[in-house]
Amino acid sequence: MSELRWHPLLRQWVAVTTHRQDRPQMPENWCPFCPGSGRVPDDYDVYLYPNDFAAFSSDSEPFSQDAGAGELYRTTGGRGATDVVLYSPNHNLLPSQLGVEQWRKVIGLWTRRTDELFADPDVQYVAVFENTGVAIGVTMPHPHGQIYGFPFVPPLIQTELDTARSHAQCIYCKILARELAEGRRVIAENGSFVAFLPFFGRFPTETAIYSRRHFPGLAGMTEVEGVDLAAMLSIVRQKYDNLYGFPMPLMMMVRQAPAKGEYPYFHFHIEFLPIQRSPTKIKYLAGVESGTGAFLNDTRAEEQAEKMRAAEPQG
Questions:
Q1: Which structural domain, as residue segments, surrounds residue 248?
Q2: Catalytic residue (one of 19, 91, 144, 214)
Q3: Which residues contact 176 (CB under 8 A, 6 or more apart)?
Q4: Residue 262 domain-assigned (yes or no)
Q5: Per the structure, how many domains does the chain have?
Q6: 315 within a domain of the structure (yes/no)
Q7: Tell me, what CATH number does 99's domain have?
Q8: Is 144 an active-site residue?
Q9: DSSP state, 182?
Q10: DSSP of 278-291, one letter per residue?
Q11: How many CB atoms lie within 10 A of CB 2?
Q12: 117 near 58, Cβ under 8 Å?
């Protein structure tokens, strides 16, 4: 079970999850996510798999924001949820090889699970994300992502919320309008979504997908927007893997409003955070980034956007 410890200097919770030390590391000749393993159905398309090494779970003690208030060292429980989203039964399929219809099924699973977790009184934020590539630290090669039901709003999300709330008009809509007006960093667009390399990107070839319509999260998408998002995810993932001619190690984060409360100023978007800064070099988050929180980006968005536009999907 997880224990949350309060960081009195950064004023944020740190999850202590020692049981996760036992996670398998890229096992050979066996995969729990493959049909026939006994851990998943023998016939599935997409599947929600309860994480065997959950960071947050319903078995943990409940979370209390005010636990130990006034004390230097505070602890509380980490009750929440940790799920694995299996994108396909095909063990060797890359996310960039998923068809639009398969991405649509993945998005449907994201949305259904988000709805369930939003109804859970212990969940305050639903984080949908993916880690891809050994260089990122992936421990299972089968195509998958994850969904965390946090018992608190994570600090980066809270920063975005605070910033968005402070603007009279939606700051995301303003960013999207600026990117469309300049055009230099836009790499793909359709009727519902625009993909671009943000002017302010922190990671090499960082890409964002913004919805054209203002809505706060997965539950607010229309059927047409769901199909358009699937198409955009397919395009962006293919562009990434075509950029240098090999699967791009990256993190994907689905940004949506918290589970509880009203957030009319928040705007649904997705962030891709790659770490490949050239065909032969990895961008490691070392002393400056990890120690100060200040990022040094080794690429220029305008130049990388031109390369990403040229990295056309095959077929």
A1: 3-310
A2: 144
A3: 194, 210, 212
A4: yes
A5: 1
A6: no
A7: 3.30.428.10
A8: yes
A9: H
A10: ETTEE----HHHHH
A11: 24
A12: no
Single-letter residue type at 93: L
Distance CA 290, CA 292 (A): 6
Count CA within 13 A, CB hemisphere, residue 157. 23
Q: Listing from the earlier edge strand, what are the strands of the sheet with 125-132?
A: 47-50, 81-86, 144-150, 125-132, 250-255, 269-274, 207-211, 193-196, 186-189
Task: Say if 274 falls within a structural domain.
Answer: yes
Q: Is residue 201 part of a domain?
A: yes
pTM over 0.90: yes
Q: What pLDDT tens digit does each residue of the chain (315 aa) get?
A: 789 999 999 999 999 988 888 777 777 888 999 999 999 999 999 999 998 888 999 999 999 999 999 999 999 999 999 999 999 999 999 999 999 999 999 999 999 999 999 999 999 999 999 999 999 989 889 999 999 999 999 999 999 999 999 999 999 999 999 999 999 999 999 999 999 999 999 999 999 999 999 999 999 999 999 999 999 999 999 999 999 999 999 999 999 999 999 999 999 999 999 999 999 999 999 999 999 999 999 999 999 999 999 998 765
Give the number of other CB atoms < 10 A from CB of residue 22.
Answer: 8
